[in-house]
Amino acid sequence: MNWNAPLKPAEVAESGLIIAILDGHFPIGESLPPERELASQLGVTRPTLREALQRMARDGWIEIHHGRPTRVRDFWREGNLGVLSGIARFPRHAPADFIPNLLTVRLLMAPSYFRDAVKNSPRLSVQLCRQTVGSVSDNDAGPASFARADWKLHHEMTVLSGNPIFALILNGFEQLYAQMALVYFQLARAREHSRAFYLTLLEATVNIDPFSVEELTRRTMADSWDLWNEAAGGRSFSELEVVDDKVLATAND
Hints:
- The protein is mainly alpha-helical and about 250 residues long.
- About 65% of the residues lie in helices and about 5% in strands.
- It is elongated and about 65 Å long.
């Protein structure tokens, strides 16, 4: 199986259109150019463009009416999880408040799926927490190790919660989660904060105390907001880039 297959032409066209919409090149409420012109701009055939447009209409980016121009919808109000996943793929083109809003959603979700995981699958939750603690127990564990451990913990907890919707939502942010985590865990205080969380979480999980787990997770997610701002140094996500596990500023100081 080819795990690194290149994007199909329709996927390339879709990505280009999403970026253009997010950048305001095609504003909400405005019409897209005629098919022939748009296909030429994107360097694809008209059938390929139509495939991309149909996918975007399904997700709520655009509105297609035969015989009339294709209109950019108010995707913030009318879009669905497909729009959310699309924005997560291109966070550098998203509004400045996208990451803060995303952290707010995590603050609301994570305590619930951690609580339900311990309630519904206590034995497997204990195993997972022990693995997480073990994976970052080395004092030399760096940002990449923490990023992998944290994603696995959250993802597996959504599965163990018994509510598949949690996992589906989180899966839509896997790539963005990894990028954010590498920035976040550059901060030594963030690594120590998470290491302490994993240890305390393990204790509460061993005691099969779902509501202590819920409250602990809520406090930790709230604290992580401030730590994220510290790790990002006051810069928006679009102004940061991770190269070889080092966070670089991409904007002028």
